[in-house]
Specification:
The complex is a heterodimer of chains A (about 350) and B (about 350).
Chain A lengths: L1 H4 L3 H34 L7 H9 L6 H34 L12 H15 L5 H23 L3 H25 L1 H11 L9 H27 L3 H6 L4 H23 L5 H13 L3 H26 L7 H18 L1 H4 L2
Chain B lengths: L16 H33 L7 H8 L5 H35 L7 H4 L1 H14 L6 H22 L6 H25 L2 H8 L12 H21 L2 H4 L3 H6 L4 H23 L5 H13 L6 H22 L7 H25 L1
Helix pairs in contact in B: 1-14, 2-3, 3-9, 3-12, 3-13, 3-14, 5-6, 5-7, 5-8, 5-12, 6-7, 6-12, 7-8, 9-12, 13-14, 14-15
The chains are: A mainly alpha (about 350), B mainly alpha (about 350).
Chain lengths: ~350, ~350
């Protein structure tokens, strides 16, 4: 009561406090990402001390095994984790925003399955074997799956998730047919399908970063439009937005980002689901902030999953995709238990 | 029909409308079941005759009753008959389970494939094969345990003042993704030839089920089907809604939990023997309900429809589409998934209108 008497400074005060909180959350996420990146460089089957890592980065000694490990394995792995995590985090946010759907994710909506099928067909029919060659097929497959899923399930959140799961179930037997026919394809595919940050090398990133850039730029443009779209199609239209254009641009950005992530790290599910939820918890519902924070939390989750996977087994590694799914599945369960979804 | 219910029938010679309706339904059910049985026998005969060594029906049937020559008898009794039996039993189990799921959760989309129970079974079987190094019945046991574990997890995490259908489906989808990523990891970390042989457990096939496994399967199925017959009479009232069912004297909660437990048991049993045959549990009851069309759960018809479906799918997989013999689950998945998509597409249009 008395607080309202303080006067007009009160709302401004609130806004300032919220801005401070957002900035704090952003800086904290940045710090955590830096920490995870350092952990990813230092930890592993061969534990290195930070000084060695620093020397390997700045002043490498030729022939030193530790330095070689850092430069040829840890650095590419870390960079790929950051890039793929960034793409997945933003793609997840865009999907959830454009469909107004809390249970959306490139994996859940069948985009990963589409990309996988296209890659398998490329290996089988065209003899493509290099991860870089997978890229275009991953894009194509993800785009086709996205068109199929959105054309059937658009509008209803739960239905969209079900359509995604069904399209995945439709594509899985097609993949299996190819794998059963072609042992070579199976051997390549199984290491790709598990979702790993290793084995790609940096050359995949040398020009995929261009796609990443396009996707991020589109997301930055779209964030404000998503805020309006969150109020409903009619309100967004009344505010002067061309809803169809927003949807089309967002669809393009989602396919580009999800396709890039799949090309870099394989089909990784549930990172795109969990990250936007965490981001919304921290900075509220303004999509400009949610997108910006997801771009940090995505790498934190994926790279963190990779680091955990290196430490959890005594003599081998658990791939990032497996650990990420183990982190993401409880998030999906928690979201499904939430009141908003059960009411749908 | 309901309009005449209020007025007494004018002539006493004609049976009451309700009795007439019941008689007509019974006749229709008998007709549908007979037609399905004929179809099943025709498919089985076809399955006996087709193959690498094709036998004319007369020789196949002679061998079946033990009058053919040694070669024919071997082909029929050792190679083809077990496969047919496995297909029929698995199809019946999946069909029955699907009918129970769908009528209990009152949701035509409820299917063990989407619910993640099937992925749990796959994971159990692949783990047993690749990590524990088990073979034969032990693999089936692991698949059974995997399915039950996932079913329990879904129940545990989806329960919140009752089992909301959509919530349980979403929780199931979550577990399905968890299982499939663990599955991918198991396949990637194993030796390539072993991994390829375990691949069949991720789609399901009725080949290579014989002997003791088949007998155990049949016995388990008979046991569960008997229990379903007991619970099944509550399914009709349950379909009217909880309150009406309670008014009719049905122990609603017990009936629902019992039906779901039996359905999970059936899926776990069938999956542990033949692997997850995608979407049979979804499609068979849907076809059966449309055939019978009495608003009920159509349990028996679903079981027979499921058997016919799996048998037909196995025939197509063996001799039809591909130049390799495709596992049964691939064919059922390719038929079932588009059906579910169509269901989702039209379902939405109806509810939006």
């Amino acid at each position: 009561m008395t607080a309202t008497l303080v006067g007009p400074s009160r709302p401004a005060d609130l806004v300032a406090r919220r801005a401070r909180r957002r900035l704090l959350a952003y800086l904290a996420a940045l710090a955590v990402l830096a920490l995870v990146a350092v952990a990813s460089l230092v930890l592993g089957v061969r534990d290195l001390d930070p000084a060695t890592v620093w020397q390997a980065l700045t002043d490498p000694v030729a022939g030193d095994v530790d330095h070689q490990v850092v430069r040829e394995q840890r650095v590419p792995r870390t960079l790929i984790g950051i890039a793929a995590g960034l793409a997945l985090g933003i793609a997840g946010t865009l999907i959830q925003g454009v469909t107004r759907n809390p249970i959306a994710d490139p994996g859940l909506l069948g985009l990963n399955a589409g990309a996988s099928l296209a890659v398998v067909c490329a290996v089988w029919l065209l003899g493509v074997t290099s991860p870089i060659g997978f890229v275009w097929f991953a894009f194509l497959g993800a785009a086709l799956a996205a068109v199929l899923v959105f054309s059937i399930g658009a509008g209803q959140p739960v239905k969209l998730a079900l359509v995604g799961a069904t399209v995945t179930a439709l594509i899985t037997p097609l993949i299996t047919i190819v794998l059963l026919r072609d042992p070579t394809a199976f051997n390549l595919y199984r290491f790709w399908a598990v979702g790993s940050l290793t084995g790609r090398g940096l050359d995949a990133l040398t020009w995929l970063w261009l796609f990443l850039l396009v996707g991020v730029a589109l997301a930055a443009v779209l964030a404000h439009r998503l805020n309006m779209l969150a109020l409903g199609d009619d309100v967004a239209r009344a505010l002067g937005q061309r809803v169809g254009v927003t949807r089309g641009l967002a669809g393009a950005a989602i396919v580009i980002l999800a396709g890039t992530a799949t090309a870099l790290a394989g089909p990784i599910a549930l990172v795109g689901l969990a990250v936007p939820h965490a981001a919304r918890r921290l900075v509220g519902t303004d999509y400009r902030w949610v997108v910006a924070l997801s771009a940090l939390l995505g790498p934190v989750m994926l790279l963190g999953a990779d680091v955990i996977g290196r430490l959890i087994l005594p003599h081998s590694e658990l791939e990032a995709g497996v650990v990420a799914a183990a982190i993401g599945a409880p998030v999906l369960v928690a979201v499904a238990r939430g009141k908003t979804v059960a009411g749908v | 029909m309901t309009t005449t219910l209020g007025a007494p029938t004018p002539t006493s010679a004609v049976p009451t409308p309700v009795a007439a309706l019941r008689a007509r339904r019974r006749r229709k059910l008998a007709l549908v079941l007979t037609a399905l049985a004929v179809l099943l026998v025709a498919l089985a005969t076809l399955a006996l005759t087709l193959g690498a060594a094709s036998l004319p029906p007369s020789r196949a049937l002679l061998a079946l009753v033990g009058l053919g020559d040694a070669g024919d008898t071997f082909i029929v009794h050792r190679l083809r008959l077990p496969r047919i039996e496995a297909a029929v039993l698995a199809g019946a189990a999946f069909g029955l389970a699907g009918a129970l799921f769908q009528s209990t959760l009152r949701n035509p989309l409820a299917s063990p494939d989407i619910l993640g129970i099937a992925s749990g079974a796959s994971l159990g079987a692949v783990w047993a094969l690749l990590v524990a190094g088990l073979t034969g019945l032990a693999v089936s046991g692991a698949a059974f345990l995997g399915a039950l574990t996932i079913a329990f997890c879904i129940w545990f995490f989806a329960w919140r003042q009752g089992l909301h259908p959509i919530r349980s489906v979403l929780v199931g989808v979550g577990f399905a993704y968890l299982c499939s990523s663990l599955l991918a990891w198991l396949l990637a970390s194993a030796e390539v030839r072993e991994a390829a042989s375990a691949l069949v457990w991720t789609v399901g096939s009725v080949a290579d089920v014989r002997g003791a496994e088949l007998t155990t399967f049949a016995a388990g199925l008979a046991l569960l089907a008997t229990a379903v017959a007991v619970v099944g009479r509550w399914q009709g009232p349950l379909a009217l809604g909880d309150d009406h069912a309670r008014g009719l004297g049905v122990p609603v909660d017990a009936a629902r939990v019992g039906s779901l437990l039996l359905a999970v048991g059936l899926v776990a049993l069938a999956t542990s023997v033949v692997g997850p045959l995608a979407f049979v549990a979804l499609v068979a009851p849907a076809i059966a309900r449309r055939l019978v069309d009495d608003g009920g759960p159509a349990l028996t018809t679903s079981a027979v429809t499921g058997a016919a479906l799996v048998l037909a799918a196995d025939l197509v997989g063996q001799h039809g589409l591909f130049d390799i013999s495709a596992p049964t689950g691939i064919v059922t998945g390719l038929v079932g998934a588009p059906y579910l998509l169509w269901l989702l597409a039209t379902h939405g249009r109806k509810s939006q209108a």
